[in-house]
Every structure is written in C-alpha cells, then in structure tokens.
Design goal:
alpha+beta, 10 helices, JmjC domain-containing protein, JmjC_dom
Length: about 425
C-alpha cells in the first residue's frame, strides 16, 4: 500500500466461487456495540487476557475532533506537521442511500476487485473477483473487499476538501475502497504513509496508540519492504501474559459513522473494527518533512461542497484490475517527483523501498517477459557517486541530471502504456 501494500499478499487472479469457505449464514449486522469496552477484572487472570485488543487497559480519552469547516492549511499545520490524529465529523457525503448492494451490482458489478479473508492475517491471499460476485457473497462468507477504486466509480466518490489543494494534493498516493459485513477486525498496524480514513456507510471503531517509539519491540512486529509495520498480536484473543506492554501503552479511541473521517499519521499504531455493512474510503498521501511550509496558492476560500474523486491527481490508478501509475507520459522530472514521494519525511531513501516500488511498476512487464534492467541495475544508475550502497540522500536525488533519471523514465513509460502496445512494441 511499494507504497500501499497492506500485507504480505499474493494476488491470485481467480474468482470467488460459491464453494469458498464461509458459514453460509447471514453475519451479525448489529451496529450497537459498546466501545470503548467496559473492563472486567478477574483476580485469577491478567486484565484482558484472551479478550479483544482494548480490554487490556482503559482508554485515555477520545481522539481530538475539529470542525468540518477546517481548512487545508490548518489541517496541515496542526495535524499533519504536528503528527496528531484528528476526527472531522460530516466532512464527506454519506453513500448509504446511493451505494446499496443492488445499485453497486447493477452499475459496477462487471468491475474486477480484490477481496481477502474478513479477519486480516500477516500472510493473506487476495482473490480477484467481479464486484457483483463479491456482493452476492460478502454478507455470508468470510470476505471483505479492499481495492483501489476503479476510475468508473470515482465520479460518485467524494474527494474530501481538506486534502484537495496545496501541499497535500501534490502528494496523493492512492484511494482504497473497503466493503465489509459483520464484525471485521484489522491487524494492529502502522503505515509508512499518512492516511485519511472516511466512513461512507456503517460504523468503524478505532484504537490509536500514542507512542514515542515508532518500532516498539513489545508489539512483536513484522516490517514490510515498503516500511509498513504489522503486529503478530491476535487482536481478537490477546495473550495478556505474553504482551504485558499493552497494560502500560496509552490508547485513544473514536467511532466513525457515515460522513466522518479520521486522519492517522504515518507510523501511528492503530487497529480498526468494522460493524454491520460498512463502506469506507482511505486516501494515502506521502509524509512531508516537518520543516516544509504549507503551499496553498491553489486553495479556494469557498471550495465546492462536493468534488468527485476523479479530480484527484493520485500516483496510482486501477486499470485492468491492476495498479498502474496514473500518468501516461512520464518524463525524467516525473521520476524525480515519484522518488521524492518515496522519501516521505526522511532524508534518505533506502534501497528496499525503491526495490518494492520498482517491482510493482514492472510486474506486468515482467509477466509479459519484456526485457528490462534489474532493479539493482537501475538503483546503481540512480545512486552512482553516492558513498552508500543501501540508500541515497534527498540532496543527491535533487541534484541528479535528467540523463541519470531517463533510464527509469523509459521503463515507467513502458509500464504506463503496457495495454496500448503489443509485447514486441514495448
């Protein structure tokens, strides 16, 4: 999720059949769940042992909220640069009335989407299936959907005004649409990107840990190549003896309903639980250096009430059921911009993050057996004259000549236009 992969995932391009595992019975669609939980102490057991995450310590307080009229500059300065979570109520249009299962099936049922097991795992298998098939099964079977929103759906999807101009708009990575039914739990996780999480229908409960350490060993972490972190803790049945740290770690909470959004800063540990039929939109955007001032010459004093997501300049788009770079014509300066996004707020870009990006953008070319330089060869071309093999500095990238970036630009150009040419033309 390079940038937005949420798990160690393998993508099988197969449909979800009626024989897939599932109870066959409708899921519990109850939205009236007590949260934060009322803790129960037992003298013979550690607090919250074999209970869901959140039962091991009382919540500190609700996550801070701000006005739905918050402007992008205030949002950026107080929360993005301040590395603080914030809830904004009613900032997007609810989709519960328009995007019913019947409507989605009729208008978008032919589109391929990706789905996974309802309870996230460290190693998951995503299956590709028509949206219509998913909608026929997700209320009974153990599935939830997480897919980059296809272009066809973006006209009806709201683009939150708080990220629709200035510094943030230029750093948008990709939008993910989530659909689930029943009680659906995420892993305890921290992403390398900032995320604006908006609920379009249903309810989601969030746990946010306020930790100074980005890599707490006590969370038993797995790190992905793109920088995302996931905990091995079973969020439904926590071993409170093994993970004693949860009795000490302060956490904050919120519940989002239709129209509400939550900003989760990069590397902020959080866990999510959805209830009932839930539709949600997450928009990831690259972190900035905290010294970087807000640039908002394109911001309007009175922005439109509704702007469709189709107007957002995302790095990635979803085409032919695969993630692609959004641009069709890619220059050496585009390459420089892409790589700067990979830096995030850091002054160094590590080879493993570049490698993850390169594998994603060349995946289809590789499957078509198109002859390409290896990621190592491209990295050496970009990182020549740097004393370090494992990373390049921000200043080095900014000073690279256009000729040094052209090799990667040519490769990305082939990837962007892969469906416009035959193999021998690439």
């Amino acid at each position: 999720m390079i940038l937005l992969t949420i798990l160690f995932l393998s993508l099988n391009q197969i449909g979800v059949s009626s024989t897939d595992t599932g109870s066959g019975f409708p899921k519990d669609m109850n939205l009236y769940v007590t949260f934060p939980p009322i803790l129960q102490h037992h003298e013979s057991l550690a607090l919250g042992h074999l209970r869901p995450l959140g039962w091991q310590r009382r919540a500190e307080a609700p996550i801070i909220e701000d006005s739905l009229n918050i402007d992008p500059e205030r949002f950026y300065n107080l929360f993005v640069r301040g590395n603080r979570s914030v809830v904004i109520r009613g900032i997007v249009s609810p989709m519960d009335v328009l995007w019913t299962d019947t409507y989605l099936s009729k208008h978008y049922g032919h589109l391929n989407v990706t789905a996974a097991k309802r309870k996230q795992r460290l190693v998951d298998t995503l299956v590709m299936t028509p949206l219509k098939t998913f909608l026929q099964q997700y209320r009974q079977d153990d599935l939830y959907m997480n897919t980059i929103i296809p272009d066809e759906m973006k006209l009806e999807t709201p683009f939150p005004s708080v990220i629709n101009c200035g510094t943030i708009r230029s750093r948008l990575i990709e939008p993910i649409l989530w659909i689930s039914a029943g009680d659906t739990a995420s892993l305890l996780q921290a992403h390398a990107q900032h995320t604006l999480h908006c609920v379009l229908d249903g309810r989601k409960d969030f746990i946010i840990y306020d930790l100074a350490n980005h890599y707490p060993r006590e969370f038993d972490l797995v790190k992905q190549a793109n920088g995302d972190l996931f905990s091995r803790i079973d969020v439904d049945l926590v071993n409170a003896y093994k993970y004693k740290y949860l009795h000490e770690a302060p956490w904050y909470w919120t519940t989002l309903r239709e129209g509400d959004c939550l900003f989760v800063p990069a590397y902020k540990f959080h866990q999510i639980r959805a209830h009932g039929r839930t539709l949600a939109l997450t928009i990831d955007f690259a972190p900035t250096n905290i010294r970087e001032e807000f640039l908002g010459t394109d911001c309007e004093k009175n922005p439109p009430v509704y702007v469709p997501l189709s107007q957002a300049p995302f790095l990635w788009r979803y085409e032919h059921a695969v993630r692609h770079l959004s641009k069709r014509t890619i220059t050496s300066e585009d390459v420089r911009s892409y790589l700067l996004l990979l830096f995030g707020a850091n002054e160094e870009l590590h080879r493993e993050i570049f490698r993850d990006f390169y594998l994603q953008v060349t995946d289809e070319l590789d499957k078509k057996s198109v002859a390409l330089p290896t990621g190592t060869d491209v990295w050496k071309q970009l990182n020549k004259d740097e004393p370090h093999e494992e990373f390049m500095t921000r200043d080095h990238l900014k000073n690279l000549s256009a000729d040094s970036l052209q090799l990667l630009a040519d490769i990305l150009q082939k990837s962007a236009r892969i469906h416009e040419h035959h193999k021998h033309e690439l």
